[in-house]
Amino acid sequence: MKDILNRAAQLADHAEIFFLESTSTSVGFSSNKLKGMDASENRGIGIRMIKNGRLAQASSSNLTNVTEFLPAVADLCQHGDPVRFEFAPDAPLSNLQLYNPAVEQDRTEEYVARGEEIIRRVLAHDPHLLTHCGFGQETLAVRVLNSRGVDAGYRKSEFSAGVLVQVVEGQNIVYVHESYRGLTPCEYIEEMVESVLRDSDLARKTVACDGGQAEVIITPEALADILIAFEEGISGENAARGISPLHGKLGEQIFDERITIIDDPTCAGGRESQPFDDEGIPSRATPIVTRGVFNNFITDLRSSAELGCPSTGNGLRMKPLLRSREYGAGVGPATTNLIFLPGDRSRQEMIKSITTGLIVNSITGILLGNLTNGDFSGNIALGYLVRDGQPVGRVKDTMIAGNIYDAFLHKLVGLSQERKWTGNFGGGSGSYLLPWLHLRDIDISV
Amino acid sequence: MKAHLQALIARHAPQCDYLEVRIEEAEASSIAFRGRKLETLRVSQGKGGCVRAIVRGGLGFTSFNNIDRLDEFIALAIKQATLTGRGETKLAPTVPVVATILPVIKTDPRQVPLAKKIEILDGYSRLIMEADPEYIPTCSVGYSDSYRTVRLATSEGTFLHQEKMDLGCNLVPLAVRNGQTQMASAGIGSSNDFNVLQGLDTEVRRACQTAAALLTAPPIKGGTYTVVANPEMAGVFIHEAFGHTSEGEKVYENARLQEIMKLGAQFGSPILNVYDTGLVQGSRGQIFYDDEGVPAEKTYLIRNGLLAGRLHSRETAGKMGEAATGNGRAVGYKHPPIPRMRVTCIENGETPFTDMIKDIELGVYACDAFGGQGGEMFTFTAGRGYMIRNGKIEEMVKDVTLSGNLFKTLKNIDAVGNDFFIHETGGGCGKGSQFPLPVAHGSPHIRIRDVVVGGK
User: Fold this and answer.
1) Is A210 touching B (CB cutoff 8 A)?
2) Residue A40 in contact with partner chain B when CB distance is under 8 A
3) Residues 6 or more apart in contact with residue B111 via CB below 8 angstroms
4) What whole-number distance in Å separates Cα of residue A211 and Cα of residue B248?
5) Using a CB-CB distance cutoff of 8 angstroms, which residues of chain B are in contact with residue A106?
């Protein structure tokens, strides 16, 4: 890797190499049956070169002949735009424990047995349910080197488990699911299955719901997806371009004072924890919103230079939309572990306090709204009607529409004490520690 | 390479029911402007492979960059398949093919100097930034092209060498006023001609006008409306809602959907015809063979209102006792082929646009689409919308999000226009982690009764 950097640095004024290697295995069950296994070993590098103050980027998964490719990349620089930032300086890094040696064990047989056990348990509950489930483990190796002396790396282990049950009742088909992704093996499989079975019982009963403005409880899973719009707002890139609704609002009250949000890549147990970002900037916690007051945009080197502030260490190479890490993706500001401080009411109290309202578990079409604006809208893929403090059944053909900058400022009823680690799109990507959020006067159409 | 792959397959094939190796090399370049700034200039090269082995219905799949270790990855895939196989392997038959498929390219982006590509995109960036400086402070202009060489070798004797070119471009003005942001987009894509990138000024200007006009457009009032969808919107609808639901494994894995999606079942009025085809010359969705070596074809999904077919990989077709349709596609070597679309279309009908709207008292004209999600229950957002009042297109409205039940909605299509065209965009189709796959969609205007439109 050092050779590649040295060669790149000879060809340009400054160079940076990002190396990512992923080794993973998974076992999948589909429709109550063991479907198959996957194994992958993929690696590649992202390259950035600056020559005469101009930047070009490249990526390669063909590491045996990558040095032959470098002159063409250096050549690209002449066409690039002038850059205002320098690559990261060498700096001391915190020591985070992200690697669990358990990831090296072949757990195939255990996963097969667990999957079969889950299917048995679900079928014992209701023989008509169809179960899809899967288990996986992955080792990530990351290394960042640049011509300013950075040469740092880390290894991270990741374990995942997911249970999805398909409920069919008359004309209705509903999916209920639970998933886990973390740095240590999943210890909650029984709880996940019990939770899915409880949800499946409730989802089977469809109830009618009126349109209009309603009280809603947003679950951590749904909140993670709604927050994608907020992440557009706090992106330093959008701030630098002048299209963030939060542009010029640093220090202002943007949310209810009960809301405090931190981006923390250093927290124990966070799936997106890391000692440094993909540009080699040491990780640190960044307050985003403190008691409703907006504190910081999240930035990478480029957007921080444009905004005239230091990088928050959020420069990540993420594939757009999928929000998965990729060596070939461009660097941009992205959240790591996005954390809400807990509220003061229990989740049960919140539900009990509702005379008529909804619990929203997941929303289809969340990416289709005007995200930059903070809009969240879509079809409630899974949601329950609450009457007199009790969930009574599932709502269907129901849409929700709102805007976070309006709802989180004017329409917050409360946040729960309980919080849950979750991710986007059913847990697949992103990392969030979130409470249940109780809002009022949210537009519902049927 | 050919002899080496065939020898490896011959050696390992006796241990499994089916074995395939796919080796891919790709080169790509991308250019992006933010406002007037050239923000991304990137080239990439990649090489990798994958192995799929099937033993008694169990699937083993390995993917890797290090092709020197191919032998080891074949053995691992077979071991995985053996561990999981407990049933019967059912792959729909296909005639083994030995062929080399090279695209017929009009203008090859690899021959176009980078400076020229930058100049064209810079021109669009300038056009947008000068269109309405008061309300359009920035834009995203993105372009990418790729050239892939894929070799497929199977234990049934297929050896296919296919080369594919793909390019796409999105031109997106962003309009801002009082903390509100709106966008619109113009785009293009092709599998055989760089020059489609030229001459988009009219589309770009229209996108600028749309983005700015959305700033002052009122949000639509939520409710149930008669909706007339323009060809772009109708194409996205048929892709997102019906196309994805027609993918073999969705039906196969869902007993109730199997019940509903019986071939021959009434899915719409006799004026409705829907197909998916790999045969559109120059389209991003054009393929000659899919990633399983099955020849591409034009597959009718709905014919005269009746369900006529679905989109199959060899696996889903085999499990359902139907024929493979050439829809087994993989986004790259990190993934196995699964049922995917190519160019998905509502066939041309007979109703002129003016006739379609003339009797609508209160309705919505939904144009273009940001994208969509979902199958049986779908949601998608129009890029712009207009109210239809007393047979006339009236004021622009925003936040036009359509949602509903697919089967009900298909049956509610009561007019199909006569102005069919295929829409090529710079985006791509996503399914699970397989994104973006080059596809396209086509349709004339269509009219749908009783659509739930979300809004305030």
Assistant:
1) no
2) yes
3) none
4) 36
5) none
Could you list the beta-strand ranges (E) of A61-150.
Answer: 130-146
For residue B28, how far is the Cα from the chain centroid? Answer: 19
ipTM of the shown complex: 0.89
Question: B376 near B433, Cβ under 8 Å?
Answer: no
Burial class of residue B361, CB neighbours in 10 A (0-12, 13-18, 19+): exposed
**Interface mutation vs chain A, best among B117, B224, B401, B433, most A CBs within 10 Å:** B401
Name B148's Cβ contacts closer than 8 Å, sequence gap at least 6. Answer: B24, B25, B26, B163, B164, B166
pLDDT digits 0-9 by tens, B132-146? 999 999 999 999 999
Q: ∠ CA(A277), CA(A281), CA(A284), 5° rounding?
A: 80
- CB atoms under 10 Å from CB of A86, counted, come to 13
Residue type at position B456: K
A interface mutation test: which of B43, B320, B376 has the most A CBs within 10 A? Answer: B43
| B405 closest CB neighbour out of A57, A370, A397 | A397
What pLDDT, in 10s, does the model give residues A271-305?
999 999 999 999 999 999 999 999 999 999 999 99
Taking only the tens place, the pLDDT of each residue in A162-217 is 999 988 776 667 889 999 999 999 999 999 999 999 999 999 889 988 889 999 99
d(CA A205, CA A123): 19
All residues of chain B having their beta carbon less than 8 Å from the beta carbon of residue A428 are 433
- Domains in chain B (CATH in brackets) are 2-216 (3.30.2290.10), 223-454 (no CATH)
